[in-house]
Amino acid sequence: MSDQREPLTCSHRSSVATRDYRLEIGEKMSEPRPLPADSRRQANAMLAACDYQVWQTVGAWLDLRGDNLLFVEGAEDFDVVGAGKGETTQVKASPDPISLGQKSAQEALNNFWRLKKASPTISISYRFLTRAPFTVERDEPFGAGIAGLELWNRSVLADAEVQSIGNFLCEQQHVSAELRTWLQHATSADIRRELIHRVLWQTHSPDIEFVERSIHRKLTTFAEARATFRPQAQSSGLQKLCTPRCGKRYGTRRRGPSIASDW
């Protein structure tokens, strides 16, 4: 029986050789693999927190009104200062529940109190912005199932409730001596006016994807309303504006967005 296979022509030889060469080169030029890593030593959480802080800062810049100025990495992660008043904001990306009994909350109060004392000529407020929910303090000092921070944020507080917050803070390890001494001598009206009404615990803040989408919508609306971008330039322009990078620029001042300087 005769062999019916097609003879191997020069064209076939060339294609086979090319294929073999490509296989050989492909094996030699495969992408390098990452080195073995210890996840416990990686800074993923830190970078995510930095990214979240940057996006929240951009959002605060877009929300500026009038002659208010935004200061990045000032008293806290960012500050908004206007005529006779200033609000400083600390941003936390962690979703872990927080309580008034935790060190981070007490240190935030210490920071607010120091800033208030250092700024006697303006009205200071403090915002603790976090993705975390409230949690109830150990032994439920504010009542069954009642979180101290949830109580703090209520629009109306009885004098007894205000005093319970003051008494609780006086007993906490991480409250500064200066703030503790003031609390020990302050009336309920003082604590309400000078502390509780000045500090906002903004919990359950949205995740970073939601914040990014919100900023993109604001920028798109701003640009379209003012015909700032040409249609073909709008996408690349927004992408450039909406790509913050982690890093500190101490004392950076920003007014709200304007056509001439920011678009």
In brief, what are we looking at here?
With 263 residues, this protein is α/β, with parallel strands linked by helices. It is built from ten helices and six strands, in the order ααβββαβααααβααβα.
Describe this structure in words.
The chain has helices at 10-28, 44-62, 103-118, 148-152, 159-170, 177-185, 188-194, 208-226, 231-241, 259-262; strands spanning 69-72, 78-82, 85-92, 123-130, 199-202, 252-254. It has 263 residues and is α/β, with parallel strands linked by helices. It has a domain at 84-202. α5 packs antiparallel against α6 (177-185) and α5 crosses α7 (188-194).
Spell out the key features of this protein.
263 residues, alpha/beta, six-stranded mixed beta sheet, 10 helices, 46% helix
The overall average pLDDT, rounded, is 82
Shape: globular
SS summary, helix count: 10
Low-confidence stretches: 8-17, 245-251, 258-263
Helix % is 40-55%
Number of strands: 6
Structural class: alpha/beta
What is the gyration radius calculated from CA atoms? Answer: 29 Å
- Strand arrangement within the widest β-sheet reads 5-4-3-2-1-6
Q: Main sheet? A: 6 strands, mixed
User: What string gives the helices and strands in order?
Assistant: HHEEEHEHHHHEHHEH
Strand content: 5-15%
Q: State the separation between the terminal residues, measured CA to CA.
A: 81 Å
